[in-house]
Amino acid sequence: MKKNERANLHPQSMCPAFGGLRVLTRIEGARVCLVADQGCLYGLTFVSHFYAARRSILAPELMNVQISGGTMIDDVRAAIAQIAEDPAVTFIPVVSTCVAETAGIAEELLPKKAGNAIVQLVRLPAFQIKSHPEAKDVAVSTLLGRFADFGEPKREKSLLVVGEIFPVDAMAIGSVLQRIGVESVIVVPAANAEDYVEAGKTQACTILHPFYERTAALLEENGVRIVSGNPVGANASAQWIEQVGEALALDMETVHRVAAEEKEKAAEVIKKFNNLSGKVIVAGYEGNELPVVRLLLEAGLEVPYASTSIARTSLGEEDHQLLSMLGTEIRYRKYLEEDMQAVLDYEPDLVIGTTSLDSFAKEQGIPAIYYTNNISSRPVFFAAGAGTVLGMVAGLLGRKEVFRKMKEYFTTLP
């Protein structure tokens, strides 16, 4: 490394096990057995409860004496037996993190069932899975591999929706799918284990977030047609509706009509913000950043730089090609230092980023908000989503002068 060259030391993602815990702790009747060292156990339990899991997590005592003494698997089995004493527990996900995987946790030595509960190992080490969104994919694909009924024939006009979505978005998607003739819809990640069983019977699957690669591959191998993309913005909304219609062999005259209606609704909302101008940087770690960038560009904003913690995927390739063509520099597996440099290089009017990047941007007098709490917790699909996101962005761009004055005030204090 050259002198004065900055080292890339800060990958921007939660521990990947957190992403898996988000999926697993929400399943009714599930009780997680977390195989991790004490520090990881504390941190992962804290963030899981912070994000409203409200489920207890049980773990064997995993210290050096257990690892070096070779008793880890016995301790895990004992923890499983303890959890299984509760008759209300019907599923025990055994989540193994870095220490357990390094020591070597053997799946064949774990019981397949304990008491009333099915037992399933879910491997989530950070040295193998690079971000918490991708860990959601591992968890969902593992659950489908264990539970899904992939028998034939498939249920007619049935669709599986894969992705964590805001409740208002779920209602909007359900309404559109009903209008085009979809007769049954299953959504995962799900709170009901039965949904993972029924997921295997669907004809097609729409993957709303591009990091669900393992899930898509598993479903495709078992005869489920895959629809990538999502209904964010006017053009993509129409395209998504038509692709779902084609995948399920629906009445395409009806599908085209609904697609045109939704495209017009979203276009009308976007048109209301046609006076928007400014330069925005989007730098999240949720894995769903590029569709948001696409919406901002459709509204006439400039997005010179976007970054995400996930890898470049085939499911997100269409967005990558479009955004690159429109001039957005895209960074995958990004580092905080790269995002900070982008703020300095592009001098944006607004940053939608991680907490660390937001702090840095505000020090420069630039308005900044946390991507996860302000984008991932709001609707983004169809016309309603476009209005929500663009309305928030419009309000923030209107306050950039306030941030400039704040910086001037604090930098001129004696």
Description:
The model has no long low-confidence stretch (mean pLDDT 90). The radius of gyration is 23 Å and the shape is globular. With 414 residues, it is of the alpha/beta class. The strands form three sheets. It has a five-stranded mixed beta sheet with strand order 2-1-3-5-4, sandwiched between helices. Strands 12-11-10-13-14 form a five-stranded parallel beta sheet, with helices on both faces. The chain has 18 helices and 14 strands. It folds into three domains: 114 residues, Rossmann fold; 112 residues, Rossmann fold; 137 residues, Nitrogenase molybdenum iron protein domain (Rossmann fold, 3-Layer(aba) Sandwich), CATH 3.40.50.1980. 48% of the residues lie in helices and 14% in strands. Helix 6 packs parallel to helix 9, helix 10 packs antiparallel against helix 11 and helix 14 runs parallel beside helix 15.
Sheet with most strands: strand arrangement: 2-1-3-5-4
The second-level CATH architecture of the largest domain is: 3-Layer(aba) Sandwich
Shape: globular
Helix content: 40-55%
Discrete helix count: 18
Low-confidence parts lasting 5 or more residues at pLDDT below 50? none
Largest pleated sheet: 5 strands, mixed
CATH superfamily of the largest domain: Nitrogenase molybdenum iron protein domain
- The level 1 CATH classification of the largest domain is Alpha Beta
* Average pLDDT over all residues: 90
Radius of gyration: 23 Å
